[in-house]
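Final report, results section. Input specification for complex C-07:
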Amino acid sequence: MKKIIITIDGFSSCGKSTLAKQLANKLNYTFIDSGAMYRAITLYFLWNHIDWENTGEVVTALENINLEFQYNPSAEKSDIYLNDENVEMLIRDMLVSENVSAVATIKEVREFAVAQQQKMGKKKGIVMDGRDIGTTVFPQAALKIFVTADPTVRVERRFKELFETNPNITIEEVKNNLEMRDYIDSNREVSPLRKAEDAVVLDNSNLTREEQLNIALKWAKEKME
Ligand code: CDP
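Structure output:
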């Protein structure tokens, strides 16, 4: 079976990362969470008080950012390291979620992230999830999946996930954040979120994790033959 690139794009909290991780584990592929890169860059900007409306400041800051993924066996996926520090948990913080989509509109930030993502795909055998993976990062990918889910389902899923580490979080806060990010992600100038023409749609509103995996695995195997 040949090694391929699988892209998974879609709105916030559609279960893209869950699906990408499941697929990668089944196929023995590498899973790359491209959103983690934008989140880590945002965390660096926040920590270092970078004015991201100032292009010069952004360019200098990016020169000082080193992002790496390292496999974490207990999570069965890679954690992201920002300048050698594991920030996998810190990047899920609400303050990062509130600012990441604005940071992700910046052309220089996208060029920085996309160049690294394309390098990671050189050897194929990867599943990458994000917003522009099938359209901009790997337009030639063999399998492109566009995941959707009912907005109420998405809010509930993300609320449950965040509540585990932050019992002060409210449903309203989560809903507003998802709506805001989806709006900015879909309307930005550089690589807006949209379904690639040749992507297949997977609506997982009423699917269990196992059901969604089986559908995607079938698609993957067809392309790998
Ligand atoms: O997990 P969730 O779907 O909520 O978001 P994420 O994948 O962690 O991505 C966080 C944010 O990064 C998104 O809302 C986008 O603004 C940005 N992003 C992007 O612009 N392009 C990507 N390929 C991935 C994420």
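Residues 5-224 form a domain with the Rossmann fold fold (CATH 3.40.50.300). Residues 12-13, 16-17, 34-35, 38-39, 100-101, 104, 130-133, 181, 185 surround cytidine-5'-diphosphate (CB under 6 Å). This concludes the modelling results for the funded period.
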